[in-house]
Amino acid sequence: MKLFKKVLALTLALTMAIAFCGCGSDKAAEESTITVGIAQDIEDSLDPHHAAAAGTREVLFNIFEGLVKPNSNGELIPAIASEYSVDEEGKVYTFTLRDGVTFHNGEAVTVEDVKASIERNAGIGDGEALVAAFSNIESVDTPDDKTVVITLATPDTDFISNMTVAILPADHLDETATDPIGTGPYKYVSRSPQENIILEAYDGYWGEKAFIKNVEFKVVADPDTIVMNLESGAIDMFPRVTSVQAGQLSDKFNVLEGTMNLVQAVYLNNDVEPLNDVRVRQALCYAVDKQEIMDFMADGKGTAIGSSMFPAFGKYYMEELNDVYTTDLDKAKELLEEAGYPNGFDLKITIPSNYEQHVQTGEVIKEQFAKIGVNVELELVEWNTWLSDVYSGRQYEATVVGVDASTLSARALLSRFVSDAGNNFINFKSEAYDEAYNKALASTDDAEQTKYYKECETILTNEAANVYIQDMSELIALNKAFTGYEFYPLYAQDISKIRPADQD
């Protein structure tokens, strides 16, 4: 626990520095407006406890906060809580609420609000946990008006990563879907489905104030119009432009380069024939040339990966898994013949049409799979259709998307592959995987826990649960009138850090 205390002291010092060294530009906050293009509309519900899509979460990141929150360095820092501690066993988490934190309606955040938000996610009262890790919560207690004590049924030294879950007003939970009220640097103003969502800087924010007063997230679903919208001034910023689009921009824009911090793959429905045969799935893995995909998409940029973990997760990432399936068409054909498909088979790959990178990947994959006799039909669908049919309904054969981590923990990427996980949209089932994952959860030793998580990753690779491709390069187009953009290791668009260039 000595290491934990040192980390806590460091993060507290960092937070205090942020709180005291600057509050943004009042002039800029009064006058500034930025329009950010997004590739798809956010979900119908604005309730952060029910948000499933990464695109929704990256917008809501500006509105809501948890007891702790991530920073751009990948650290968890105190937010609504000013400090916290964990007992030696890893079962009791004690949080002290920060003074002066208010909701966007002006009401002070209370321990009752925290308790209600945590219990809602734990399913206490109705028995259905919204966050899998919260099913381990035994009780949420409030011994005084500044303290919240969360007691777990079994030790979980990684539980703090889940405390980024949004804290909502206890008396407003049922209205959050249409009238979101949080504690973040921006407050909700309005939303027009398929058009935009509008935010405004919250003057009562406890931390560093946002530099820009007005923010519009504008839906630009047609990839062919992104450059036109940027050049015309209809939008000032667009995350995740392609290398081709970046090359078409004038010198009015800076193109910032980072990584998307997600796992792009051909995700396979392990329940449908012939994908329920591991030999078929392995054949598809041997058919793929990842470098060719990256060359086509992004002039060779990106990081090839071999399992459901990306490099930003440091100690958990296994670069060696990328070499398990090197391009080998003869081996692929041999496996297909063993499985009873000597002439290949037909495969429909469903892709959300608003993500040009995934569409381009699908086009290359179609050509690569054809070399082993797999005839691919690319089915391009709208985002909402993909969410309902593929992700929720599991009515698909294969899909090309990128999966992100909702929290800074290995389980955020690996929990979805547990056999009975509600978000196991590929229908992967493995007793060995379930056993290794549960051992990771049960362990309080970091090295042992890491070992079991790596075992999970290895199983996913060996079983060819999906055809893993890359962590894609991320290009951000930002009008030179603005500066200050920061990349996060999670899917987030932190608009509060962006400021007018003339205020720099």
Keywords:
single chain; 504 residues; alpha+beta; Dipeptide-binding Protein, domain 1; D-Maltodextrin-Binding Protein, domain 2; Dipeptide-binding Protein, domain 3; six-stranded mixed beta sheet; four-stranded mixed beta sheet; 14 helices; 21 strands
Sum this structure up briefly.
This protein has 504 residues and is α+β, with helices and mostly antiparallel strands. Helix content is 29%, strand content 23%.
At the first level of CATH, the class of the largest domain is: Alpha Beta
CATH topology of the largest domain: Dipeptide-binding Protein, domain 3
Lateral strand order in the biggest sheet:
14-18-13-17-15-16
Number of domains: 3
What is the average of the pLDDT values?
92
Oligomeric status: single chain
The appropriate CATH architecture of the largest domain is Roll
Strand content: 15-25%
State the CATH superfamily name of the largest domain.
Dipeptide-binding Protein, Domain 3
Could you name the ranges where pLDDT drops below 50 across 5 or more consecutive residues? Answer: 1-29
The number of strands is: 21
Question: What is the structural class?
Answer: alpha+beta
How far apart the termini lie comes to: 41 Å
Helix content: 25-40%
Largest sheet properties:
6 strands, mixed
